[in-house]
Amino acid sequence: MAHELPPLDYPYNALEPHIDEATMKLHHDMHHAAYVAGLNNAEAKLAQAREAKDFSLVKHWERELAFHGAGHFLHCIFWKNMSPNGGGKPQGSLLEQIRRDFGDYESFTAQFKAAATAVEGSGWALLVKNSMTGKLEILTSEKHQNLSQWVVAPLLVLDVWEHAYYLKYQNRRAAYVEAFFNVINWTDVQQRFDNAA
Predict the structure, then answer these.
(1) Does the chain have fewer CB atoms within 10 Å around its N or its C terminus?
(2) pTM higher than 0.85, yes or no?
(3) HEC profile for 93-162?
């Protein structure tokens, strides 16, 4: 079954003034759609290779699968991690875990913002739950297909590739990261936290 571009749960302009409509249209309809198309293409090419028993390009298509798959799946989380009614603080067990693992909510936000701002080139900042330790961690990924830990469940992801903010914020990534905290859908993050192994 082919992967499809999921619709947004809100209109393109719903996150304004923090994230503008033009960026949302470009980001969702062009960039995310390209990941979906690339993922479907890579899966089709690998199926053809298996059928033909010709694996001469397997390295290339597996790289394409990892790149486009990571881009697609992280964006699916990213859109749900935001809401027009977002912002504020998490509640309940997620907030308790944040306090245990980071000291307090303010320390978590300071570290997350610093990590997102410092990612070299394009990339992501992620709040994850480590399934081996049960702890929350903040990771960054310059190349989303090369995440450094395989035993984590992404809970909150922030796309800091330039296409996510350049129309409104130009080269002011830190301002975009700050604005993101006004649209975080903590209900979605809490659900991911509750469902993480």
Answers:
(1) N
(2) yes
(3) HHHHHHHHHHCCHHHHHHHHHHHHHHCCCCCEEEEEEECCCCCEEEEEECCHHHCCCCCEEEEEEEECCH
Q: pLDDT tens for residues 115-161?
A: 999 998 779 999 999 989 999 999 998 887 776 555 589 999 999 98
Q: Which two tokens stand for residue 145?
A: 């297909």
Does a cis peptide bond (omega within 30 degrees of 0) precede residue 90? no
Residue-number span of the structural domain to which 56 is assigned: 21-80
82 DSSP 8-state letter:
B
Q: Determine the residue type at 77.
A: I
CATH of the domain at 97: 3.55.40.20
Residue 32: count of CB within 10 angstroms of its CB: 23
Q: Is 182 helix (H, G, I), strand (E, B) or coil?
A: coil
Give the pair of three-digit tokens for residue 79.
Answer: 């859109």
Phi and psi torsions of 87, nearest 5° = 95, -165
Mark whether 53 and 142 lie in a shared domain.
Answer: no
SS3 184: strand
**In total, how many domains does the chain have?**
2
Q: Does 6 map to a domain? A: no
Together in a domain, 72 and 113: no
Token pair, residue 63, equals 């790289």
Q: What are phi and psi of 151, to 5 degrees?
A: -110, 35
